[in-house]
Amino acid sequence: MKIKYPIIVEGKYDKIKLDSLIEATIITTGGFEIFNSKEKELLIKRLCQRDKIILLTDSDGGGHLIRSHIKTMLPPDKIINLYIPRVVGKEKRKRTASKEGTLGVEGIDKETLLSLLEPFSDTSPTKKAGGITKSDLYFYGLSGREDSSKRREALLKKLNLPTNMSPNAMLSAINILYTKEEFEGLASEE
Prior knowledge:
CATH class of the largest domain: Alpha Beta
CATH architecture of the largest domain: 3-Layer(aba) Sandwich
Oligomer: single chain
Shape: elongated
CATH topology of the largest domain: Dna Topoisomerase Vi A Subunit, Chain: A, domain 2
Number of domains: 2
């Protein structure tokens, strides 16, 4: 199933679970890292400029804090709030249950997740962002050269992204936001 909106989840295991079930742009908050990551915050804000986002955090206290923080960053009409049910249990990969003893996104059964996301499925062809590699950054002088830092800063400023991003952080962000063709057009203008 292809989901037409980007989905924000808490951690990498939530992302892995969803990646196994659906085709979508999935962003992780890194848990509480979202409170201190300007890069992640700006990326989420940029995604919101294009369309709505789906917010899918755990049903525990931590999930509610993260959800509340993201809701303060974005216009309310851009957020689709999805909530997983509170199910007592522990994730298979963990030795003990969470602090509250409930399952997170990664532990919820696939049928429940699919039923939550199904109203947002999209069968129409859409542009596929991504496909940009480290070699592309090098080719356009954005890494591995004397003036790469300056060139990267100029492009990031043009893209309205934090200008102090590392090459890897930049690569991650542009792969979410742009197709390879769009990136090539923007990078060749520099």
